[in-house]
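ok so for the tutorial part 2 we go from a plain amino acid sequence to predicted structure tokens. step 1 is just haveing the sequence, like this:
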Amino acid sequence: MSQPMTTLILAGSRGPDDPVARLAGVSHKAFAPIAGIPMLVRVVRALTASPTVGTIHIAIERPDLVRDHPELGLLLDGGRLALLPAEGSPSRTVGAALETLGSPLFVTTADHALLRPEWVQYFLNNLPDGADVCAALARDHVVQGAVPETKRTYLRFADGAFSGCNMFAFRTPQAVGVAHLWRQVEAQRKNPLRMIRLLGPLSVLRFLLGRLTLGAALKRLGTIAGARAAIVEMPFGLAAVDVDKEADMVLAEKLLS
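step 2 — the prediction. this is what the tokens look like for a chain of 257 residues:
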């Protein structure tokens, strides 16, 4: 890529039932500490250390939480960070951000506590030509090889099983169609079969028979969304580890302590 990419961190609340926020005693799991440092701060540090990242926008319902944090507040004052309202769900927030900020837009999440600058650089430097939207994925054996004790959700295709790495690049105006499609699937993100149903009966049958490739699934999703979709396959297994539950907190503490 030729210049740093405008960046969005999804840091909105997931409500009072969020297990990580509840365990940490905070309103937003973005501020749950891992090894003594709030996850959002860890993510911001990784992003600011990457030369491929431009202005970082944090989407959150409580901007005061960011302003009142000493380190984040200084970055706000210095113009390195900016604030956007969270819109109630990740897909709606991304859609609104694309309307406000335009494209290209790099998106990650505040619960990506292990995020490293080299992962960000690898992803953004390897975006496939001609793709409107790209997602970072890691193969199951890469994830398990890096962190055998983790339990991830995998999408299993004929050419491999993949886990998401919480990094997305919305590269062109057409990518907004993927944000709209995302609204339909985000309630089913832990149920791969229901997500696959969006592909249509023939693709579902091929998926159930183990004959649907990831490339074919991306082509079909791109047709539905009106955008060309692609992936960047990540060689970093830890990139697939985010913090969604207590076991993830324990694992992240262990890895970062």
